Amino acid sequence: MSASTSPAAARQDSRMAPASTLGVLATLRRAAQVSPELLDGLTVTLALAVVAATARVLVPLAVQQTVDTAILAPGGVDVRRAALLVGVAALGLAVGAGCSALVNVRLFRSSEAGLLTLRSRAFRHVHDLSVLTQNSERRGSLVSRVTSDVDTISMFVQWGGIMLLVSVLQILVATTLMAVYSWQLTLLVWACFLPLLVVLPRLQRGVNRRYAAVREQYGAMLGAVSEAVVGAETIRAYGVAARTQRRIDAAVAGTRRAMVRAQNLVAVVFSSGVLVANLVLAVVVVAGTWLGVAGDLTVGRVLAFLFLVQLFTGPVQMATEILNELQNAISGWRRVLGVLETPVDVPEPGDDVVPSPRGPAALTFTGVGYAYPDGPPVLQGVDLHVAAGTSVAVVGATGSGKTTLAKLVARFMDPTEGAVLLDGVDLRRIASRDLRRRVVLVPQEGFLFDGTIAENIAYGLRDEGGDRPSTEGSAPQDAERVAQVAAELGLDVWLAELPSGLATPVGQRGELLSAGERQLVALARARLADGDLLLLDEATSAVDPVAEVRIGRALRELARGRTTLTIAHRLSTAEAAHLVVVVHAGRVVEVGTHAELTARDGQYARMHAAWVAQTR
Ligand SMILES: Nc1ncnc2c1ncn2[C@@H]1O[C@H](COP(=O)(O)OP(=O)(O)OP(=O)(O)O)[C@@H](O)[C@H]1O
């Protein structure tokens, strides 16, 4: 659990202004608080950058001095002085290059360290956000905040920030030197550049907009292509290849159009920079010569001006480009800081924490109500007691609130009213490490990771310390335990049929296994996790009769001796449970044994009669 997710941190976060409303400086300040490494040794880096920028002005200075005081010296060419000046300039340039390299290395180090902290804090926080927030926030955008937004920031921090500084410094130093040589010519140079300074930022914003359109079109193209690949079977089965092709062609054409539009504008921006630079050179030559003839300017100074103008053009163009990058980085920072500020809605207990030791688990709902954010109540006034070691089947129409009930027990979110108690203790007072050890949820579609069956089962292993499940399962004792639970659940016959048994790869999300086989792996994983309270969301997907028998056997074995709450989609599960709970429109409307409820003329009796008529 990261420091940022403690209740105190969350409270502190909620007192601060949200990141999305912060100005540029405030965003940078807060970013520096989150990643203090970014400021490591910044003063030295800045000093080195100043030296590097100043060193570049040495060439024009040396040219002027060499021409005016060595080549055109009153007593004839002074070779020694010329050599000395060139030597000093070369030395200065070498020192400048060294400083520049050091600046890069130092910036790279501090920014990598800072961004590592930022990325890992953001990732851990995303992980700590409730399942609810992750759903509503769209997982994709959360992932992009942790990856591409941090990359945008990284681009700016590693390159843009310092280049902006160096560019501005270079412009200042070059202007100062130009002013010393000739204020008239300096004014002329600035007069030529000013329109560019006004127009460039606008053009640059246009370029940004057009590149945003390119990214959008590119995303649409990727979406169309990947959908066609994933849905290849359906496309072939329905003979809609031509239609799909047209969609892809349109997306490709859209990307091309957007790209051409963006590139056209880039060409305009680039050419206008070159045009102005050349224009300024011409102006300097003409005006410089004129001033020279009038006796106001030496040959060396005119030549130095030509070099200085070169030093001026690059930074002007670069600074506008970097200012844009700064805008992107600032919005990236705001988004990442926004993630860090999202309060954790299932906070860890504070001082009121109560230990929850292993052992038979009793579950109680007292006056539980729940509404999803901005939604109507989906559970109301739920009172229920499940005795330790018993099995409960929750039944009800689709959308009645069964899964929500189970999610509250797993503490994916907290009830908006009332409380859920484990052995009489409110879940909000139980440390998540204890809760995860005691409550194990088997979702309808257990997620399988790319790896072998054994590795996937081993996700159920817990470290001795408690909460971190082991993913390797490679230690000999782990492999033994994996094989043992597989045997206990009666999976050895199935595993023996597979080419590599437990070492069989499952593919991404388990796509190499059938739906029934994936369930078997998920059940073995839950068995290894060995909780006291089992939450089973019964799979609705149909499996073949052999798999059905295997799953049934594994389920019975898994549930033996544990408190079990099953969201039952098959009424046969309800028949076998100790207690049946009927949920209707968010309320518990009937509770009793199967026999009791069928004897009543209630909702369960009607559901059961309909099911019997359908299946038997
Ligand atoms: N993440 C969510 N955000 C907003 N509303 C939700 C969310 N999940 C479920 N709901 C709503 O809550 C209600 C209860 O849903 P729930 O999944 O608990 O029903 P269920 O009985 O498990 O249904 P099913 O048998 O189809 O799985 C539904 O109206 C559903 O639309």
From TrEMBL:
Query: A Pfam family this protein belongs to?
Result: ABC_tran
The membrane topology term of the UniProt record is: Multi-pass membrane protein
Q: Which GO terms describe its molecular function?
A: ABC-type oligopeptide transporter activity; ATP binding; ATP hydrolysis activity
Q: Where are the transmembrane segments?
A: 38-62, 82-103, 155-175, 181-200, 265-291
SMART domains under this entry?
AAA
Report the residue ranges that make up the ABC transmembrane type-1 domain in this protein: 44-328
Choose one Gene Ontology CC annotation of this protein and give it: plasma membrane
- Highest taxon in the source lineage: Bacteria
Q: Does the keyword 4Fe-4S apply?
A: no
The record's section on InterPro entries has: AAA+_ATPase (IPR003593), ABC1_TM_dom (IPR011527), ABC1_TM_sf (IPR036640), ABC_transporter-like_ATP-bd (IPR003439), P-loop_NTPase (IPR027417), Type_1_exporter (IPR039421)
ABC transporter domain: residues covered:
363-610
> Where is the protein situated, by its record's location annotation?
Cell membrane
The alphabetical list of record keywords is:
ATP-binding, Cell membrane, Membrane, Nucleotide-binding, Transmembrane, Transmembrane helix, Transport
The UniProt family comment states: Belongs to the ABC transporter superfamily. Lipid exporter (TC 3.A.1.106) family.
The protein's name is: ABC transporter related protein
